[in-house]
Amino acid sequence: MKKILVMPLLQMPSGHHQVAEALINKIENLNEEVLVKKIDLISYTNKTLEKVVTKTYLEWISRAPNIYQWLYKTYIYSKSGSTSLINIYNHLFMKRMEQLINVEQPHLIICTHSFPSMLLARLKIKKGLKVPVINAYTDFFINDMWGKQEIDLHFVPNKQIKLQLINEGVNERNIYITGIPIDEEFKMNTHFRKQVERKKILITGGNSGLGDMKRLLKRVRNNLQFDYFVLCGNNQALFQQIQSWKLPHIKPISYVSSRKEMSYLYDQVDAVITKPGGVTISEAIQKKIPIFIHASLPGQEKVNLAFLKEKGLVFELAGDKSIEQQLQEVLMNENILKNYYQNVNAYHLEIDVSKLKLQAILAAAINHPYKPMRRSKRDQLYVSTSY
């Protein structure tokens, strides 16, 4: 039986985990005998450390977003191979990654975050690591922490990224434009939206309590022309707050775990208001729903937003105008909607990997003629004491 490791980062719900789950579902639907394990290297190293890192990250982007944005641009989004930050990462986690591989003996590794990809690329250079590695990108751009030339396959979101990787020395044959991988449920129409006078708007992004959701909801409380469905996720405080308003045009929705149910929800609405996270945007683009951006977190969401605006795939809500007015200007204008759908279709045309082709690529990677190394006695001892 072949073993596959899928590697996001941290344990909090994120696009890295959603893409990981989408790829795991595709692999498990293959006619292959495989064991798939999703592993976060930081939790694997130290569970307490993972909790500290997650808490620090959430507090940082909410309390000091400008500082986080500067750090992201300086150490992650830009060339950063020689920075002290990267050297610290290498010292702390390189040996742990090597140990993980020796313990698990995988036949294939899929990275949905740049951090494990960077470590694996360096292991390929310094230690001659032979395990095939796939990068599955979760945003509409790639930061400089990702491993590139050393990585065996790249699942990229768009043609622009493919050209960037080619310019950086990656073999074109190893790059596939897949879009950001999402669950197959979102590629099916569960219900056709009816053309009715009263539009339905889905508001997402409330799960983590980030993204200025409270301010957004205050702005739509008195907007009586539309019906709003607010996806609260695990944010019970937000759910209860909206319920306490007892407003017929604003309905809170708790955590939706089923991809099928989420797909059905998308098909009931006429637009979505959200943040520019790669997975949520990809799901809405797949459903061909007009997308309105109300806020963006520092770091990758800021870069995503710049790409999406350039391609005409989203509408950014202005803070000094009524949200209701801005929704009307788009949803009631046939010319604006026609142009938007043309942009969405152009984006889809760039994706050159069908479902069947992606399955064939994954099957070929799984069956790559690579034989894992035998475990050392030290690693065998580690396996018996760590599970």
UniProtKB/TrEMBL annotation:
Coiled coil location: none
Any GO BP: glycolipid biosynthetic process
UniProt keywords, alphabetically: Glycosyltransferase, Transferase
Domain of life: Bacteria
MF terms (GO), sorted A to Z: hexosyltransferase activity
Keyword Metal-binding: no
Example of a GO cellular component annotation carried by this entry: membrane
One Pfam family here: MGDG_synth
Matches recorded under InterPro entries: Diacylglyc_glucosyltr_N, Glycosyltransf_28_UgtP
Ranges of residues in domain Diacylglycerol glucosyltransferase N-terminal: 16-182
Keyword Glycosyltransferase annotated: yes
PANTHER family: MONOGALACTOSYLDIACYLGLYCEROL SYNTHASE (PTHR43025), MONOGALACTOSYLDIACYLGLYCEROL SYNTHASE 1, CHLOROPLASTIC (PTHR43025:SF3)
Assigned protein family: Belongs to the glycosyltransferase 28 family.
Name this polypeptide is given: Galactosyldiacylglycerol synthase
Protein's organism: Heyndrickxia ginsengihumi
Organism lineage string: Bacteria, Bacillati, Bacillota, Bacilli, Bacillales
